[in-house]
Amino acid sequence: MPSSKPSSIRSAGALPQPVLSQPAPVAVFLVVTMEPGGEPAVRDLLAGLAGLVRAVGFPSPDGGLCCVAGVGSAAWDRLFEGPRPRRLHPFEELEGPRHRAVATPGDLLFHIRAARTDLCFALSAEIMKRLRGAVTVQDEVQAFAYFDSRNLLGFVDGTENPVGRAAAEAAVVGDEDPTFRAGSYAIVQKYVHDVDAWEALAVEAQEKVIGRSKLTNIELDVPGSHIDVNTVTGPDGEELEILRGAMPFGRPGHGEFGTYFIAYARTPGIPESMLRNMFLGGPESGPDPILDYSQAVTGTLFFCPSATFLEAIPEEDDPD
Ligand code: HEM
């Protein structure tokens, strides 16, 4: 079986996939499972993905087209020989007193971002053309930036995301797993909102749920709010960070209003502890009140290997 054997030599100067790229106006989240025998087509696609993005994106230099590919825990062993990313495991389902974080199938994630819908569409189409018959699509969501970076609950989303070097520190694997340096873990969850119930709340009550003012986006001191529950600290009291890329999606004609949540992290343990606080409740607070208006309908964990790793996947007819 042709395979990619990760080596620490290859990972020494490894470059990440574009996990750190700026929030974009349009995104597509594509989650698929691999059919038996689909592995060679998937390996070929992953090896050629950067070239495909260049081909689709180059004629539109202002389009900012980029794509991050992730591989799920079970799929990893079907695709690659040798060591595994140390912390790759299936998404842990959480059953809280009132809310459930479901785990749903997903072998591959494609997180496509661009300034324009047509570029995201064209790249998704090229990816699917190469994977047809090799995969089954589990979820395909077209998401969009909404007004001034707001979600469909009307609040600005992404403010406290780390930037620059702090973003790389939060999202990109370093020396703790030398073979997989420059990779990233990605947790995705698709949330659908009960907008009628949300809009029935007074703005002040909504602000208490989120922990920020709605119009001016100023942080409020509200114990138990969404931002309070998601402020997690390490052993030395330092704040532990993730890089979020959540985007709104929806179909008003079907009554669908949602947030597609994605977090990139250097270790899945950090978003997992946030999820435990949200769904099970933390030491000082109950479950996250945002969940009374938001239901998680998917949940999957992926490892997004470095761009260098993907480029080094041998062609199927390559004798090495
Ligand atoms: C229904 C889905 C969600 C919605 C609508 C949502 C919305 C928001 C909003 C409006 C903020 C405040 C502004 C900001 O800093 O971005 C925020 C902050 C945050 N959210 Fe969420 N969020 C969702 C799910 C999650 C999940 C699943 C996690 C973690 C796994 C998470 C982690 C965080 C973190 C870490 C912050 C920043 C906290 C701080 O330091 O101030 N969120 N979210």
Automatic annotation (TrEMBL):
Dyp-type peroxidase N-terminal domain span: 17-144
NCBIfam families: Dyp_perox_fam (TIGR01413)
Organism, scientific name: Streptomyces ferrugineus
A GO CC term attached to the entry: cytosol
UniProt record similarity statement: Belongs to the DyP-type peroxidase family.
PANTHER family cross-referenced by the UniProt entry: DEFERROCHELATASE/PEROXIDASE, DYP-TYPE PEROXIDASE FAMILY PROTEIN
Domain Dyp-type peroxidase C-terminal span(s) in chain numbering: 148-308
UniProt-recorded name of the protein: Dyp-type peroxidase
UniProt cofactor(s): heme b
Alphabetized GO MF terms: heme binding; metal ion binding; peroxidase activity
Keywords carried by this UniProt record: Iron, Metal-binding, Oxidoreductase, Peroxidase
Tree of life domain: Bacteria
